[in-house]
Structure prediction request, 331 residues.
Amino acid sequence: MGMQTRLTEHAGVEHPIICGAMYPCSNPELVAAAAEGGGMAIIQPVSITMVHGFNDPDTIEGLRVGIRLIRELTDKPIGFNALIEKGSEKYFERMSKWIDIALEEGIRFFVTSLGKPDWVCEKVHAYGGIVYHDVTNRFHAEKGIQCGADGLICVNNRAGGHLGDLSMEEMFEELSDLDVPLICAGGIGSEEELKTAMDIGYDGVQMGTRFIATNECTAPDDYKGAIVNATEDDITWTTKLTGVPVAVIGGDGVKQHSNWLVRRLLNSRFKHRTRVLVTGISFWRMRALAKGKKNSAKDLWSAGKSVETVHSIESATTIMDRLGESLIEER
Ligand SMILES: Cc1cc2nc3c(=O)[nH]c(=O)nc-3n(C[C@H](O)[C@H](O)[C@H](O)COP(=O)(O)O)c2cc1C
Prediction:
């Protein structure tokens, strides 16, 4: 048995480690391989359906086919990521149906990102499931708990994807009195960093970047190679992809901000619509990137500062198992 925490209890897994959802990198084989290693692995529904070939725009049943493929590869627990930021009615409707499908297919662990998770908590709790909410600060943490979240994914300033402002120590300090499990997201690539997070008092970690550099992830070899070769100084951020800071590989050469018009709209009452538009444009670009087409130097790979300790491409099962086991040896 692995190290037991509130996360392992909630998620029904052996190790207190989550392979986080990643658009566009979460392909079914990666999710299955990470789950097989004894941790929790999260499905990213847009990634599974629209990037990795399980799209059926008329019935949205493609997600069910993707989940069943994962089920053929592993019978270990898997989770589901619901990005619930204010967007179009159509997006909400689709996400709501996707959550129903995930519940029907037996998924009981959900991670919500952005937005108010009250309606997701209502649906999931009715099935006896669990919802953890992504946060970068106390304001959103308190809101998430008021909405019914059972735990918090604490996104720090070393994370891949959207990053926060606070260090892993500062985030814990800020949220530790809230009496729900706190999961450290950002900057974990190795056993040492995992131990540091657990010693601080977190109930577990969520990792992304480390799981891109794996045999099972179908991201292009150039992307995996860039992660293996980068140091933390090569990681910077840009708002150009989604309107808020996203960690990317590229150092000083990366343009950090969008043009003045987009910046202005992002600070106006049109901010949600502008974010949907900006994200939509980069969606297609990142989708092409996930399929191996890097067309211009402006195309960016997202990764966090955990690149510093990622030195090889390995199996996601091996990584999950090794990191989980390292916690047991520590005791
Ligand atoms: C390329 C990439 C895409 C991501 N996409 C999502 C996403 O769609 N939904 C989400 O909740 N988190 C997303 N994340 C965040 C990860 O789930 C995880 O919290 C983060 O990568 C942890 O930081 P690390 O990369 O330092 O391990 C993404 C991260 C990366 C690197």
Notes: Residues 20-23, 25, 44, 81, 83, 111, 113, 134, 158-161, 185-188, 206-210, 302-304, 306 surround flavin mononucleotide (CB under 6 Å). The chain has a mean pLDDT of 88. Residues 13 and 191 are 18 Å apart (CA to CA).
